[in-house]
Amino acid sequence: MSTDHARDPRREPLERLDALEDELATLVATLREGAGRLRDEIARVRASVEALPGAPAPPPPAVADTGDAEGARLVALDLVLSGTPRDAAVLRLAAEFPGVDAAALLDEAGATSGV
Questions:
Q1: Ramachandran angles phi, psi of 4, nearest 5°
Q2: Range of the structural domain that residue 35 is part of
Q3: Taking the model in full, what pTM does it have?
Q4: How far is CA 58 from its chain centroid?
C-alpha cells in the first residue's frame, strides 16, 4: 500500500490555514501594539498642548479614525476565521473599537473570508 493513499488530502490545506491564521494573529498583535503606542503619544502631546498658557482647547478626537477602522476589520476577520460566536465577537469589537459598526464589520469579514 502506497503512503500517498494513506495521506490525508486535507493535511496541506489545513497546515496552510494554520500558518495564515498565525500570520494574521501576528499582524493583529503588531497593529494593536502600534495603535497603543500612537494613542500614548497622542495623549502625551495633547497634554503638553493643553498645558501651554493661553492655548485653545484642542478639538475632540475622532470617534473612529482610519487606523481604528482598519484594526477593527483585522480583528473582525480574525474573530470570524477563528469561529468566535457572533454575539461574543460583536461585544469584543464594540469594547475594543468604540464607534465602529461591529455587526457590519463581521458581515464584511464573513463575506471576505467566505465563512
A1: -65, -35
A2: 3-113
A3: 0.45
A4: 28
